[in-house]
Design goal:
single chain; 266 residues; alpha/beta; TIM Barrel; nine-stranded parallel beta sheet; globular; lyase; aromatic amino acid biosynthesis; amino-acid biosynthesis; Tryptophan synthase alpha chain; RibuloseP-bd_barrel
């Protein structure tokens, strides 16, 4: 069986001796076509792997920036079918693309149906912030059936036993949340992140991505020193949220991604 697009990406970045750059944007923000243009801009500027966020009205992890973007996407009528379509357009750029979603929308849509349609669109997997492996039997089966990677989260509070269990169940990479709390840009990266990644290294050789807080190239460089992937979300969303118009937003996005990519390659 051939390697998944995500596994192939990490094989390549490890051979290049650098971290992968992962960029997150909510589907349908600021609107459907602009979200596609934004993803294409990110990939052109250096994002290696795209996270397409499924806008959700009841987030438990998203900070105010991503909540504001998701609210706008929902107000604009973004639906799950749009998320899958946008993920497909993202995958068409050549960058492996995953959907990041809370579990309730997937369960309501139908787990196998969601997996089938995402795989058919070219998606590579799911990041599931509120789904833990010991409750993921249906998702494990659907992901196996449709060749999708399962990206589970771990936190600084995770026990060594849970780290090992989560790493065993995960595929593609493991998402290490570097801070306790909601997402958002931060002045400094978390001091807990290197320790968490070090603990994971003791139980798995699967790639580890670190997210929550990175907002510039210097921080990306710092995280790239100990992680396999640098995950950026709120800072990218802020480029579009603060822009006076679409052209300015895309230009700001390109500048930030260029800086972040230089950070992971230094």
């Amino acid at each position: 069986m051939s390697a998944s697009p995500i596994t192939a990406l990490f094989d390549r970045t490890r051979a290049e001796d650098r971290a992968a750059l992962v960029g997150y944007l909510p589907a349908g923000f600021p609107d459907k076509e602009l979200s596609i243009a934004a993803i294409e801009t990110m990939v052109e500027a250096g994002v290696d792997l795209v996270e397409v966020g499924l806008p959700y009205s009841d987030p438990v992890m998203d900070g105010p920036t991503i909540q504001a973007a998701a609210d706008r996407a929902l107000a604009g009528g973004t639906r799950i079918s749009d998320v899958i379509e946008i993920a497909g357009r993202s995958a068409a750029t050549g960058a492996p693309t995953v959907v990041m979603t809370y579990w309730n929308p997937v369960e309501r849509y139908g787990v196998d149906r969601f997996a089938l349609e995402l795989a058919a669109a070219g998606g590579a997997g799911l990041i599931t912030p509120d789904m833990i492996p010991d409750e993921a039997e249906e998702w494990m089966a659907a992901s196996e059936a449709h060749g999708l990677d399962r990206i589970f989260l771990v936190a600084p509070s995770s026990s060594d036993e849970r780290l090992a269990m989560t790493a065993e169940a995960a595929s593609g990479f493991i998402y290490a949340t570097a801070v306790m709390g909601v997402t958002g840009q931060r002045e400094q990266t978390s001091s807990l992140a290197p320790e968490l990644v070090g603990r994971l290294r003791k139980v798995t050789d699967k790639p580890v991505g670190v997210g929550l807080g990175v907002s510039n190239g210097a921080q990306a460089h710092e995280v790239a020193g100990f992680a396999d992937a640098v995950i950026v979300g709120s800072a990218l969303v802020r480029c579009l949220l603060d822009a006076p118009d679409a052209e300015a937003g895309l230009a700001a996005l390109r500048r930030l991604v260029t800086d972040l990519r230089a950070g992971v390659e230094r």
